Description:
This protein is of the alpha+beta class. Helix content is about 40%, strand content about 25%. The strands form four sheets. It has a four-stranded antiparallel sheet with strand order 2-3-7-8. It has a three-stranded antiparallel sheet with strand order 6-10-9.
Amino acid sequence: FQSHVILRTTEADKNDAMFQHSVLCQTFLPYRDPGSNINLWQQRQGSATLAVQAGNTYDPSIGEFAQIGLPYGPKARLILAHINTEAIKSRRPEIDVEESMTAFIRKMGLNTDGRTIKVVKEQLRRISVATFSIGFVTEEGSTQADLKIVKSFDLWFPKDQNQRVMWNSTIMLTDDYFNSLTEHAIPLDERALAALSHSAMGLDIYAWLAQRLHRVSYERPQFIAWTNLRDQFGHAYGELSKFKQVFR
């Protein structure tokens, strides 16, 4: 899960910023729910391709593991930024979700009603069981790395579904992801995330610019064709003209 971008953060950055993994600033999750029949999501940008495989979670009501869907939408992106930030700031792979998540939702300008929290909780569960694979094409051939972001988690479901949804107390990031994140964390402005919190494409464009612009020389601007932008951001759009309108 390596990237060609290595950005080391200062202590001042850590106090004022939120963080996303550089790979997830270049390749992205689905904008909308792909549906229960789609268990594999692939997204390509340049020589890198991200694949996300839906995982299984234990269902205590039936005593078996059952597959759940892929993470998607703006809330999945915000959750990843939140758990990344908690890990970077604490320098620990263990995240106290119970104390931090509701406050984060409120900070992003989202409602903290039961419906919103259920959606966020479901996206956290999907992220926790999904497998992320990144493939690179190089002159020497191709490389692939597979990993899970979360090592262990404890999701609590009330028997009465009308009860308030409780957070799991902690999640533990995998060693591979935590170590990679500390080397490849891109700082993002919390105010920008809050302003874009209802737009998956908006969050993706901002994260992409955050990791890309500092590598573009002021004296040598870099041209990017609309077709390349559609390949990266417009997977849901068949017509280029419609994508241009939405992207602008």
